[in-house]
Amino acid sequence: MTEALSADHITKVFGGLTAVDDVSLHVNEKELVALIGPNGAGKTTFFNCLTGVAPATSGVVKIGGQEVKKNTKAYKVAQMGISRTFQNIRLFSQLSVLENILIAMTNQFKEGFLTSVFRLPSFYKTEDEMEEKAIALLKDFNLQDVMYYPAGDLPYGTQRKVEIVRALATKPKIICLDEPAAGMNPEETADLTRLIKRLQTEYGIAVLLIEHDMSLVMNLAERIYVLAEGKLLAKGTPEEIQNNQAVIDAYLGGGVDA
Amino acid sequence: MHTFFQQLINGLSLGSIYALLALGYMIVYGISKLLNFAHGDVYMLGAYWGYYTINYLHFGFLAALITAMLACGLAGVIIEAVAYRPLRNAPRVAALITAIGVSYFLENGMSYLVTSDTRNFPQVIKRKTFDLGGVSISNIQLIIFATTIVLMAALVYIINHTKTGRAMRSVSTDYDAASLMGININHAVSITFALGSALAGAAGVLIGMYYNSIDPLMGMTPGIKAFVAAVLGGIGSIPGAAVGGFLIGLLETAVQALGFSAFRDAAVYIVLIVILLVLPGGLFGKKQVEKV
Amino acid sequence: MKKNLKYNLCWLVLMVAGFYLINTLMLTGVINTFIENMLVTIGINIILAVGLNLIIGFSGQFSLGHAGFMALGAYATGIMTQTMNSAGGFYLSILVGVVISIIVALIVGIPTLRLHGDYFAIATMGAAEIIRIVINNMKITNGAAGLFNIPQFATWDIVYIFVCLTTIVTVNFIHSKNGRAVISIRENEIAAEAMGVNTTKWKLSAFVLGAATAAIAGSLYASYLQTIVPSSFGIMESITILIYAVLGGLGSITGTFVATILLGVLDTALQSLGVLRMVFYAIALIVIMIFRPGGLFGKWEFSFKHLLTRKQNGDMAEVEKEESK
């Protein structure tokens, strides 16, 4: 089985503080994996290491079997096939939903400077083609009604959804979702669960998910990794994790209701 | 060796005026995140205050200095209330444009009122030159230096050891949190502008004494240099702003002494750019990292 | 394709109509030399402000050194047309100015675009000052005395055509895939990178394109005024250009046009007041900013597409759909 993502012995040190300590993890193709852990466990930092936002101090990340070389810029890492959403939504909020999607498709199309500046026929062809694809994608997620609205004006739940679809529009091998259900009501969470499932089944994309909502995690994830104080505490199937005493002590029993 | 010490003394006295300006600029920038283009013009107001009070009211040095500080502090408070406060929640660049507007207003308003002629600053203290083994130092230079040190010490004391200073620091860090803690934001911002502008006023009187000549556009370049000094030292750091100011003074004097006076300003900007590229937060600044 | 043709045609008609309007007013003597001077100044300022708006309003990089690039164009033309006194020499000098400006923009931009916000602003301001000081101390530029008797090839019609050309290039760049990548950096740099947008490349592209148009404006300025001195290209000139861009609305080319024309006319109208002119100008700036902090037009753009579709069908959704194109 091929791996969409593998991370070997990732360590991230800030000054004297080790935020992520020798964590290894892999996500197979089309697999849905969750990363859980108490607040401050280093989950988002780990995401930042994977996506090149804040590269790891040591360790190797491979995307689709291809190694991410040291000092690769975040946009290049993204081009290798990893996409993400952010804990605090980061949409291009003054731009329309459609434009958000179009920007995510930037690298799939070629459009020369002169072609666009002098509006040569091929410019309109590319633009129409891009737009068609983007609209089709938005329709698929039932977002066509809001596609001309500024992304920042949408309700919170819809913004989260747009951010996931935007991540999908980059045609990644794997999408990393950073707390997608945070701040959502149960109805929206149910909707989100279906959406994430569709990424896997219909689009054939692997998903790595950080989430506090245990029902969502237990519903969706095929395997779970547990992070505590920067270290990998446990890994296994949802059943194994639910019955793991160390996890219960460190996390589930630690005041967070599962 | 003599020339070296001579230039060192000249550089330090010029630098201390830049340092005063930079400190004022820095605390105002710290609290309002505003490129206050009018700061240099407040310094010009201070110089003119000195000119008129000494010439017509026969004030002595200390009286002129202190009243200039009070007058400029008041001017700072008024400028903030009229031109910056309405834009506190607006895009930052909007406040920048009003700052430029205030600067134009002060420069041209003064040109209209007192004409744009260059004037000789009155010799309120008779210049005496002391000879220290071949190196000459004037009493004016000593006064500038001493005044700067006293004012800096006072500023550090106010910011670090008084309740007002604590309020100013908390507002600089986070408006919303400070206001939730019951701090009167408007009050803290006003006091900061008063202090920053008072320092500019003092620098204005001192430069008048040092160079002997003043005009309504005299604040333009020093205002920008003050910001350069504050950035060089690292925004948010009091010692940084002071060191930045002294550094620019020394650098300018050195370049001039080496015979490249035409490239004096260019040297300052080259050093600024190089330092920013190596230390993006300035010499004493903290590197800002956006949290993802 | 066809629908786009219609809108593009509208713009073309507008540009030609504008040209003939000015031409007729000129021939009938309504526009005298005084007003012509004002119009040309406004045109040159539009080129500068549109370029700066691209850098600040669309890519989100706060540059304070636009006058430096203008100086490069002005001096390229000033120096070259003195030996090559022909229209061909003039256009060649524009090209040379643009090339030099692009090279300098790359040298300045590559290291400094890593800096953020005010740090980038002060670095670009410093770079522009260095350019000015170097020009001030060179023999070929005649130092602080400047160049005079520069042959006049840039008449009002040439300036008009260049205003149209540079605006078309800039606007078309903004409304393309590449332009969207540039705007995404302004909106959220971290998200743009996560979407695979090479932020350094696109920031630099916008900066270089803005610098190139500034050089063109500089060439026109030198050739029209026939006299240039280094002190015309200082911080104050950069700030003047900034004022046009901000007052119109960062992110609105329409706004840049309106603000530049408005302030240009205001400036001329107040000319008789002497020193008081700048006092009123200053008050106008403060008042406009307090009442319209986002600039006169915010991010709104005039668009024929918008206008015509609204007339054809009242369906709001349709209008919104067309608007975003």
UniProtKB/TrEMBL annotation, chain A:
Keyword Coiled coil: no
A Gene Ontology molecular function term of the record: L-isoleucine transmembrane transporter activity
SUPFAM superfamilies: P-loop containing nucleoside triphosphate hydrolases
GO BP annotations listed: D-alanine transmembrane transport; L-alanine transport; L-isoleucine import across plasma membrane; L-valine import across plasma membrane
Keywords: ATP-binding, Nucleotide-binding, Transport
Location of the ABC transporter domain: 5-254
Pfam families, per database record: ABC_tran (PF00005), BCA_ABC_TP_C (PF12399)
One GO CC term, this protein: plasma membrane
Record's protein name: Branched-chain amino acid ABC superfamily ATP binding cassette transporter, ABC protein
Organism: Lactobacillus equicursoris 66c
Automatic annotation (TrEMBL), chain B:
Main subcellular localisation: membrane
GO cellular component entries: plasma membrane
Membrane topology: Multi-pass membrane protein
Molecular functions per Gene Ontology: L-isoleucine transmembrane transporter activity; L-leucine transmembrane transporter activity; L-phenylalanine transmembrane transporter activity; L-valine transmembrane transporter activity
Keywords tagged on the record: Amino-acid transport, Cell inner membrane, Cell membrane, Membrane, Transmembrane, Transmembrane helix, Transport
Transmembrane region(s): 12-31, 51-78, 90-106, 140-159, 188-211, 226-254, 266-285
One Pfam family in the UniProt entry: BPD_transp_2
One example of a Gene Ontology biological process annotation: L-isoleucine import across plasma membrane
Matches recorded under PANTHER family: BRANCHED-CHAIN AMINO ACID TRANSPORT SYSTEM PERMEASE PROTEIN LIVH, HIGH-AFFINITY BRANCHED-CHAIN AMINO ACID TRANSPORT SYSTEM PERMEASE PROTEIN LIVH
Name of the protein: Branched-chain amino acid ABC transporter permease
Taxonomic source organism: Lactobacillus equicursoris
From TrEMBL, chain C:
GO molecular function: branched-chain amino acid transmembrane transporter activity
Keyword field contains Signal: no
GO cellular component, one term: plasma membrane
Keyword Membrane found: yes
Keyword annotations of the record: Cell membrane, Membrane, Transmembrane, Transmembrane helix
Coiled coil: none
Signal peptide stretch: none
CDD domains to which the protein is assigned, alphabetical: TM_PBP1_LivM_like
Highest rank taxon of the organism: Bacteria
Protein name listed in UniProt: Amino acid or sugar ABC transport system, permease protein
